[in-house]
Amino acid sequence: MILTVDVGNTRIKAAVFEENNVLENFVFEKNELEKKIKKILEKFQNCSDLVVASVGNIEKESFLTFENRLNVHFFTHEDVFPFHNQYATPKTLGIDRMILAAGATLQFPKKNRLVIDAGTCITYDFIDENDNYLGGAISPGLRLRYESLHQFTAKLPLLTFEEPENYVGNSTKQAIHSGVVNGFVYEIDGFIDEYRAEFSNFIIILTGGDAEFLAKRLKNTIFANSNFLLESLNQTFQYKIDND
Ligand SMILES: Nc1ncnc2c1ncn2[C@@H]1O[C@H](COP(=O)(O)OP(=O)(O)OP(=O)(O)O)[C@@H](O)[C@H]1O
Ligand SMILES: CC(C)(CO)[C@@H](O)C(=O)NCCC(=O)O
Ligand SMILES: [K+]
Question: Is 132 exposed, middle or buried (0-12, 13-18, 19+ CB in 10 A)?
Answer without folding.
Answer: middle
